[in-house]
Amino acid sequence: MYRSWKAIAGHFGVSVRTVQHWELDRGLPIHRMPGERGRVYAYADELDAWRISAGPEIEPPGKPEGSSRFRVWAAAAALSMTAVAATYIWVHTRPRPESWAVEGRDLIALGRDGETLWRHAFPKPLWRRWLAPPEGVLEYRTMPVVEDLDGDGANEVVAVYWPKDEQDGIPEVHAFDSDGSPEWNYRVRTAETASGRMTGGPFDIRMLFTVPRQAGRPPALIAVSNQRGSYASQVAVLSPRGKVLREYWHSGHILHAEVTAAGGCGVVMYLAAQHAATGASEIIVLDPQKLSGASSESDPAYQLAPRSKGSVVARIRLSASELARQLGTASVPIDIRIRGGRVHVSVSQSGPPAGAERTAIIYYSVDLSLRDPRVDYARTFPALKERLVNQGRVKRYDTEADARRVEAVQVVVPWREESCAGAGHAAAGD
Predict the structure, then answer these.
(1) What is the pLDDT of residues 167-189, one digit of tens each?
(2) Second label for 287, Cα 20 to 30 Å away, from 28, 77, 88, 100?
């Protein structure tokens, strides 16, 4: 990103006056910050695309003639060199955030040695929902992100602003340049069913993270949001300007995510979700370079629009235990981890983990293609089951037979590499 007329002129090797004429006469893509005297800025990729479309005839207006031609050319060259030098100095002396801190309503960008580079004060204190609750389950992955998202050589800082303790507040994603200048903000739009009905309720941003891409390309920024009071979830791939490049809608809340490389697919996302129609836990695999549409649902009441056409790499539904079936509770995924070439998901069999029953957990694992399912019970599971039996809330059943049944997961979408962009292939629109 270039943030001055001199830097923009240096990109082309021409004078400031020339690029100003190009903006007026040839549509050179120049942006301006808000305000009456907002500073100019431009993106290198947009400038290069404009140069290609404009053709070889672009040149400074008012071509010099005769013996003065060389003097004008020399002056222009000197100006270009000055602009390039100024750009170099600016790039290598501007703030370089490496980490972050939150104090009250302040988002703080920290340098390499932990020094404060800048502060941004939000209207109200930030709700640090990424802190684990007392039962030890990580509920929200909304920590600020510090990464070079636009490829300009300096890290941006992206944070979720959710006013502290305001359950009814609507969270937003806010992005800041390396020097602390606000760049954009993002809020999820509402979801639509296949019948054209809009689902009600605002969206809570559940996760904010990046996915690495092939060498030489900046990471992709991912925002995962769940609809409050309803069942829709959105996975959005955001551009460095905060625009939605691609999005996937899921019928059920997506609660956890992991990222890893998987064979011919390159880097993909493994998502743990609670399925809306059945209450079962699911594992979904998406390629951030190709995701689109919505999950395909057999129950039309839960079908979101537009229905996915092959964008899901794989999807399985985990079988609930007999304990969950007798209690009539949903099975809730409480984390997802990738270790030893396998995907591990911990699932509560007695609803959201809280209180005395939070230990009713089964550990599921599958390979990276979501095959070869295995299950294991938490050490506290038998004691909890026995207590519920003694309380008359659960009838006694054969745990070993139930474990064999639980291992039989439902394959909703079998693994298909044709739904991956594959390593080294970028999707259009990045």
Answers:
(1) 778 899 999 999 999 999 998 87
(2) 100
Does the residue 277 lie in any domain?
yes
Query: Is residue 406 a part of any domain in this protein?
Result: yes
Per DSSP, the three-state class of 270 is strand
pTM of the model: 0.76
Evaluate if residue 62 carries a pLDDT over 60: no
Among the candidates 36, 69, 93, a domain finishes at: 93
**204 shares a domain with 161:** no
Q: Are residues 296 and 404 in the same domain?
A: yes
CB 323 within 8 A of CB 279: no
In angstroms, the CA 22 to CA 2 distance is 16
3-state secondary structure of 46: helix
For 320-346, the DSSP string reads PPHHHHHHT---EEEEEEEETTEEEEE
Query: Cα–Cα distance between 430 and 428 in angstroms, integer?
Result: 6
Residues 57 and 78 grouped into a single domain: yes
Distances in Å between the Cα of 408 and the Cα atoms of 129, 184, 405 are: 35, 46, 5
